[in-house]
Write a structure and sequence with these properties.
This protein has 117 residues and is mainly alpha-helical. Helix content is 71%, strand content 12%.
Length: 117
């Protein structure tokens, strides 16, 4: 039972990190670029606001909508990781562990940054 909960927790943490990587991180903006445009504008208070404009229709528009939705992308990322670890555990488990550890590191970094402010 503990092993099942352990791997479920790892799946959750890995899904969290990989989803953020795809949807939000600058390093993967090249993946999002064909499907959406990220526009930054200053508002009346001088603060920068980011807007997303989906490009195209059909499949291109669908992928753009998917990539603009953290929850939607998370479902597919989790499904992919689950399939990977279930059918190809030799490759899937290391991927799960690496992204789960990165997820924990990201959470801890956010906590430390909040405390430091």
């Amino acid at each position: 039972m503990l092993e099942n909960w352990f791997w479920f927790l790892l799946l959750g943490l890995a899904s969290f990190r990989l989803t953020r990587l795809i949807v939000l991180d600058m390093i993967t903006s090249f993946i999002r670029k064909p499907f959406m445009e990220e526009i930054e504008e200053k508002n009346d208070k001088g603060e920068i606001e980011e807007y997303i404009v989906i490009k195209g229709t059909g499949l291109r528009g669908f992928v753009g909508e998917l990539l603009s939705c953290y929850w939607c992308t998370g479902v597919w990322v989790t499904t992919g990781l689950f399939i990977l670890v279930t059918f190809y555990p030799f490759a899937g488990k290391p991927v799960l562990i690496i992204f789960a550890a990165a997820g924990v590191a990201g959470i801890l970094e956010s906590i430390v940054a909040k405390i430091s402010d």
